[in-house]
Amino acid sequence: MFAFLARLILFVIAISVIRSVIGIIQRAFTGMRQPPAVRGPSGTPAATMLQQDPVCGTYVAVDTSLKRMVNGRVLHFCSPECRDKYSS
């Protein structure tokens, strides 16, 4: 009975070690395929939402765009020129 339990425990440990090694290998290869994540000022990943400029069609980051409220909607512009063109 003791021999059976010892083999079972060794089997569980072996499976755990194999899974850990496979996970490390997968993370290493995944890291080579993906570009590094963009980090924000606090070191957390920066998630930037993009919106399309209604005048020229350029996609601009919501954080850095020029905003104008029109009919209850926020429009995002890439430059003052596009914002002024839309107004006229």
Describe this structure in words.
The chain has helices at residues 2-33, 80-87; strands at 50-52, 59-61, 66-70, 73-77. By secondary structure, the chain is of the alpha+beta class. The chain folds into 2 domains: 1-34; 50-87, no CATH class. A hairpin with a 6-residue loop joins strand 1 (50-52) and strand 2 (59-61). It is rod-shaped, with a radius of gyration of 27 Å.
What is the residue-mean pLDDT, rounded to a whole number? 83
Segments where pLDDT lies below 50 for 5+ residues? Answer: none
Q: Count every beta strand, where a strand is a DSSP E run of 2 or more residues.
A: 4
Globally, the shape reads: rod-shaped
Question: What's the main sheet like?
Answer: 2 strands, antiparallel
The number of distinct structural domains comes to 2
Q: What is the terminal-to-terminal distance?
A: 88 Å
Task: List its salient traits.
2 helices; rod-shaped; single chain; 2 domains; alpha+beta; 88 residues; two-stranded antiparallel ribbon
List the helices and strands and how they pair.
Blueprint: H1 2-33, E1 50-52, E2 59-61, E3 66-70, E4 73-77, H2 80-87
Antiparallel strand pairs: 1-2, 3-4
